[in-house]
Amino acid sequence: MTQAPANPSRQSAHLARRRAALIASAQHTLAESGPDATIEEFAAAAGVSIATLYKHFDSKDGLLVAAAVDVQQRWEAWMAEVVSVLPTETEQFVAAGRLALRGHELSPEFASIGLGIIRATPIDLGAFVSDLSVRVDSLVAEGAIRTDQVNRRTRLYLACLLDEFMRQGALTKPNPDEADAVVEIALTLLGFTQARARKLVSAPLPPLTELAQ
Question: Which GO terms describe its molecular function (predicted)?
Fold first, then answer.
């Protein structure tokens, strides 16, 4: 009697759950040990063999990238939910930038993971610039800002925020006022006037929902 083949959809679901569990374990290891953790440490923390890790990820860098993508997606989804209550796209855009620099205060574990990955792998702003340029283009189309060279300005904006995110991570205690000051300066690089940037950054942030770990 031949055995019925396994259900492909059940196999795929099992593999997806297994991969998600390995990513979650890697994120905790990054938060605790940083990017210098070895592949052996990642495997031991997950309770699997190195060979099992390599079945799901082609290398340690592949594991780090998967961990980074997962954190980024969850963080961005959370920010989108928080800022969605604001009435204009401009206010939502600015609030999202301010929240991004509050990661060390709002979610230390997420921020530690982010710092670990930034330090372990080269940062390519290309994908981030491409995504954010679409939002900046919409602000230009709405007349919220008037600017040229949107792609270049967006890259500078992101570079400012990334540098401040790393600086905030090196502080004994996060300083949201200093982070807001950087957002204000970065907004002028996008074409906001200094007065407009200051007013937007001075606005209260919307109520924060819980960020799932």
Answer: DNA-binding transcription factor activity; transcription cis-regulatory region binding
